[in-house]
Design goal:
With 151 residues, the chain is an all-alpha fold. The chain has one domain. It is built from 4 helices and no strands. The longest helix has 51 residues. The protein is flat, with a radius of gyration of 22 Å.
Length: 151
Amino acid sequence: MAKSTTFLTSNKIKTLYNRTLDLVFAVILLFITLTMIIGVVRLFYRLGDLFQQGGITGNYLYIFSDVLTLFILIELSRSLFEYFTSHQIRLNLIIDVGIVFVLRHIMIDLFNHKLDSDTIYALSALLLVLGIIRVGVSINFPFDKKDAPPS
């Protein structure tokens, strides 16, 4: 009788844990969605500033940075949404976020002429490693059940 009570308590704890985890991920996803909406509104606001000023170079960097940041937020929201559907965080989506983040950093610093050769080599090595891991994940887990070809 003591075993069944422990088992029920264990199931209740697991259920509470899963519900709490779902709530936390839902709040994070809501926050990211609101951030994306605010980012798009600010992007259009900055686009208006771009038309008002004579030069394009100054504000173009901010618009470029905002667009790339929105890509990162979109990838993060995709990974969180994937958690809701499968209750698993897919490694390939997280690696995609990392690759987009590193590329964003490289593009912005290249535009500002702030990258030295050592930093370029280090970021290139990081991109190479992330790319190799991404290919390895794709080979080991080629598709999900929903992406599987019809049988």
